[in-house]
Design a protein that fits this description.
By secondary structure, this protein is of the alpha+beta class. The protein has five helices and five strands, in the order ααβααββαββ. The protein has two domains: 70 residues, Winged helix-like DNA-binding domain superfamily/Winged helix DNA-binding domain (Arc Repressor Mutant, subunit A); 43 residues, no CATH class. A hairpin with a 2-residue loop joins β2 and β3. α2 crosses α3. The longest helix is centred in the C-terminal third of the chain and has 19 residues. The radius of gyration is 18 Å and the shape is globular.
């Protein structure tokens, strides 16, 4: 589904820049990821396609609330829905969505451990010594 990674080498400038023209759309996309229920939906869909009713049950939401969130995610291009008989089966739109989730989780994990990705650069841990990620 995706069109390939547009990821620069670590430390290199990104190939696509944030501009005044694209900043509102980027902000809207990130805002969509700011709700725990939407994150749970996306995380479940990262595991594979799922029918709307099964999805609601697996993330512990009422069917109507889950459908509302799915509609929003679909309108933002984060998920796609395909009708199969009487149900709609949802999937992540492409690998970029999975990468957004992975990067957010990676960042949170590193913050909680007091780590940084910058070789040799350390951040203070709340109750311990400064640590840095080991260089590869």
């Amino acid at each position: 589904m995706g069109h390939g990674a547009n990821t620069p080498e670590p430390g290199a400038a990104p190939r696509t820049r944030l501009t005044p023209e694209n900043a509102p759309q980027v902000a809207t996309t990130l805002q969509a990821l700011s709700t725990p229920s939407r994150l749970l939906i996306l995380a479940r869909l990262r595991e594979g396609p799922c029918a709307a009713t099964e999805l609601a049950a697996s993330v512990g939401m009422e069917q109507s609330a889950c459908s509302h969130q799915l509609r929003l995610l679909r309108n933002l291009g984060l998920v796609t829905g395909t009708r199969q008989g009487r149900s709609v089966v949802y999937t992540l739109h492409d690998n970029h969505v999975a990468a957004l989730l992975d990067q957010a989780l990676y960042h949170v994990e590193h913050l909680s451990l007091g780590l940084t990705d910058a070789p040799g650069e350390a951040v203070a841990q709340p109750d311990g010594p400064r640590r840095a990620l080991a260089e590869p």
